[in-house]
Amino acid sequence: MSPSDDDTSRPASGSQTNDFQQHRTQRSRTGEGRPKEARADALVVARDSDPPVTTEECEQLAAATGYRIVTTKTQRGHPDSGTYLGRGALETLAETVAELDVSAVIVDDRLTPGQHHGIWDVLPEDVRLLDRYRLVLEIFETGASTRRASLQVEFARLTYELPRLVAATDAGRLNRFTESGTRVYDVRDRIDHLERQLKELPDPGERFRERRREQGFDLVTIAGYTNAGKSTLLHRLADDLTLEDAAESGSTPNDRSNKDGTATVADGLFETLETTTRRATIDGRPILLTDTVGYVDELPHDVIASFSSTLSEAASADVVILLIDGSDPLEAIERRVAVSLEVLDEQGVDRDRLVPALNKVDAINGSEQRERIALVRRLLDEPIALSVRTGRNMNALRRAVASRLPTESIALEMPLGDDAMSLISQAYDRTSVEDVTYRDSTVVLECRGRPEVLEQLRSSAPSYPKD
Ligand SMILES: Nc1nc2c(ncn2[C@@H]2O[C@H](COP(=O)(O)OP(=O)(O)OP(=O)(O)O)[C@@H](O)[C@H]2O)c(=O)[nH]1
Ligand SMILES: [Mg+2]
Are the C-beta atoms of residues 1 and 88 closer than 8 Å to each other? Predict the structure, then answer.
C-alpha cells in the first residue's frame, strides 16, 4: 500500500495503524432466525476514506448468500485505481487468505474490472473474488424462482462479468478467470440471446397494471431499504394474510418458499426477492398492496428492478409507503433514506405520493424516536412512527394512505329494485359507502372512491323510465 493511499491524520476505527485492521469474528453472522448452511469460509475487505469503516451490512449480505465470515479487514483511504487496496495491503491480503485457507474474498465496494483483476491476480487459483454487486447478484441467483427472474439475473451477471472477462483475457488469464473456460464471444452471444428472450417474455407487472386499470383498483406499494419490515407490513394489511403467517420462516438462501411464495419475513437482507401483491382494504375501499424487493446501498437498482419489477410497481402506484427501519442508528437511517429516495426519484415517483413511515419504534426509546422522527422530517417529511409488529399507529398509516388516494364523492338516486341493490353491492365492494337512504320508491347511495370507479357506477346506475 502506498502511504498516499491513506489519510493518516484521522485514526482508523478501533486502531491507530494504517495497515489493515483485522478482526476475528467470534461467530458466523448468519442472521438471527434464519439458520443458513455455511457454504464457504469468506473474508470481507472494506476500504473507505471516511471512517468508521464498517462491514456489518456487507457481512449480512454475505450471510444471506450462505458465506461464513471468518475475518473482516478494514482499511481507510481512497481506493487505489489499479489494485483497489494498494500494493502493501494486497500482499497482506494474499498472506491472510493463504493462512486462513478461506475460499472467497468479498470486497465491500464496487470494483472496476481493472481493480478486480488486480486483486484476482494475487489470490490462489481456487479462491473466489466477489464485490458487493456480485454478492447481491448471487443472492438473487439462489432465489430466482421464475423463468423470467432466472433469465434476468443471468443477464445481469453476464453483463457484469463481460468487462472483467475482457480484462482477464487481455492479461492472458482467460481460463482461470472464467472458471468454466467460457470465451468472451460466447458470453456476448449469450447476452444477446438473453436480451431477446427477455423482450419476448410477458412482463407480469404490465399484466398486473392492465388488470388494475380495468378494475379501477387503487394501487399501493410498500418500498424501502432491505429488512425495514415491508413483508411484515404486507401481512399486517392484507385481507387474506395474518401476522402469524409472517412468523419467521427459517428459510435458507436456497429455499425461500412459503405458502405465498415470496413474502417471507426474516431478519436478514433480501429475504424478499420478487414482488408479491395482495388485496387489502383501506378506508373501506379495495386496494392492491404490493410488497417489493428492498433497496441496498451501492447497487445499480435498475438491474434488480428489472429482475423483480420492484421499481415499475412503485412508479405506477397511487401511493408508495416508504418504510424506514427506526431501530437503525441515525447515520444508517440518513444513508438508507437517501438511497431509497434516489431510487424512487429515478423512477419518477413524486414526493406527494410518498408516505414515510418509521417502523420498529417498539425497539427504541422515546428520545431515540424523537431524534429519528426529526431526521426523517428534515430529509423528507413527517413520518408516521409505527410498529408493524405491535400494531401501534397502524390506523394513522391507513389514514395517511387513504388521504393520498385519488378520491371523489357521489350521491346517486335510483329507483328501488334489483338493479339498484346490485349496484349498491358493487359500491360496497369497490368504494367506501358513506350512506344508503331508502325512500318510498327510490334509494340514495352516497359513496367515496376512485374517480374512474365512481364514473363506472354512475354510468351503470338504473335510471327512471322516461314518461
Ligand atoms: N422490533 C420490530 N421488528 C420488526 C417490526 N416489523 C418487522 N420486524 C422484523 O424485522 C425483520 C425484517 O422484516 P421483513 O418484513 O422481512 O422485512 P423486509 O423489509 O420485507 O425485508 P427484505 O425482504 O429482506 O427486504 C423481521 O425479523 C421482522 O420480524 C417491528 O415493528 N418491530
Ligand atoms: Mg421482504
Answer: yes
Return the SS3 of 42.
Answer: strand
Cα-to-centroid distance, 298 and ligand 2 (Å): 19
Among all chains, which residue has been given the C-alpha cell 456476448?
Answer: 188
Say whether pLDDT at 42 is over 50: yes
389 is in an annotated binding site: yes
C-alpha cell at 326: 427506526
Are 46 and 75 a contacting pair, CB within 8 Å? yes
> Counting atoms of ligand 1 from 1, which one is nearest the CA of 32?
27
For position 312, what pLDDT does the model report?
61
Kindly give the number of the ligand 1 atom that is closest to the alpha carbon of 265: 16
* Listed residue (257, 235, 273) closest to 156, CA to CA: 273
Tell me the CATH architecture of domain 3-133: 3-Layer(aba) Sandwich (3.40)
Within this chain, domains 3-133 and 204-404 share the same CATH topology = yes
Question: pTM value?
Answer: 0.77
pLDDT digits (tens, 9 = 90+) for 14-40: 332 233 333 333 322 222 233 344 468
Give the residue, out of 32, 241, 251, 271, with the most ligand 1 atoms within 8 A of its beta carbon, to mutate for a pocket test: 271
Residue found under cell 421464475: 146
Element counts in the chain: helices (H) and strands (E): 16, 14
- Residues lining ligand 1, judged by CB closer than 6 Å? 33, 226-232, 265-267, 269-272, 294, 359-360, 362-363, 387-389
Ligand 2 centre distance from Cα of residue 225 (Å): 10
Q: Is 422 annotated as a binding residue?
A: no
Locate all alpha helices (DSSP H) within 22-173, ordered by sequence: 56-65, 87-100, 113-120, 132-143, 147-170
Domain boundaries, the chain: 3-133, 144-200, 204-404, 408-460
- Closest C-alpha to 91, from 75, 103, 78: 75
User: Rounded to whole angstroms, how far apart are CA atoms 225 and 270?
Assistant: 9
**Amino acid 20: pLDDT:** 34
Q: How many Cα atoms are found within 13 Å in the side-chain-facing hemisphere of 160?
A: 22
CA of 300 to the centre of ligand 2 (A): 19
- Separation of 276 CA from ligand 2 center, angstroms? 9
Q: What is the tens place of the pLDDT at every residue in 62-77?
A: 888 888 889 888 888 8
Q: Which ligand is nearest to the CA of 263?
A: 2
Contacts of 220 (CB under 8 A, 6+ apart): 280, 282, 287, 288, 289, 290, 317, 318, 319, 320, 321, 401
CATH class of 204-404: alpha beta
Mind listing the pLDDT tens digit for each residue in 221-237? Answer: 999 998 999 999 999 99
Q: Binding residue per annotation — 409? A: no
CA pseudo-torsion sign 252, 258, 263, 265: negative
